[in-house]
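Run log // design_07
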């Protein structure tokens, strides 16, 4: 079973631009909040036409952000990031005893800081090639090329870039264990 990955618009667009959306979709169950889907399919956005065929991935949050203890802290986030995090929270994968492998894919700095502060499992698009590589889906050279492409496409700080390149398989184990044969 593929892990659910609750994805924001900027991450999906970066994966599309880097040519990684197909391997990502083959290995993960991308979950999109309706507001994210609407942003991705807006005419003129990179990949908008390819995302039109992804309606089955769209979910509407049942509740509101206000129904969670962390609601006040989420007020500074954009609607898409808030709804993505809400879907993750509603999925029951926060603090689940079996650590089902679901996580958030987010490339917004404020949303990443929020996820870190809440202890939510997340990565950014820059780490997707490493996860695919460690899962046995991508060769090491392709991983390096893809990370370089994402680094150029995204707006990552030097600190985020150096951390991403330094991550080991053990650092990313939570994100790859469901995909890997070992």
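design_07 sequence
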């Amino acid at each position: 079973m593929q892990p659910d990955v609750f994805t924001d618009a900027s991450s999906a667009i970066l994966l599309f631009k880097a040519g990684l959306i197909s391997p990502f979709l083959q290995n993960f169950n991308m979950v999109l909040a309706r507001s994210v889907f609407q942003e991705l399919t807006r005419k003129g956005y990179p990949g908008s036409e390819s995302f039109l065929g992804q309606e089955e991935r769209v979910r509407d949050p049942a509740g509101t952000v206000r129904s969670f203890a962390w609601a006040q802290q989420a007020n500074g986030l954009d609607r898409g990031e808030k709804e993505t995090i809400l879907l993750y929270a509603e999925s029951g994968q926060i603090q689940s005893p079996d650590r089902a492998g679901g996580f958030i894919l987010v490339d917004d700095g404020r949303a990443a800081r929020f996820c870190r502060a809440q202890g939510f499992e997340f990565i950014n698009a820059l780490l997707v090639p490493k996860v695919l590589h460690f899962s046995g889906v991508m060769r090491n050279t392709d991983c390096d090329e893809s990370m370089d492409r994402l680094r150029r496409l995204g707006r990552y700080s030097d600190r985020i870039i150096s951390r991403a390149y330094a991550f080991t398989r053990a650092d990313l184990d939570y994100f790859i264990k469901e995909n890997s044969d070992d």
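The chain has a mean pLDDT of 87.
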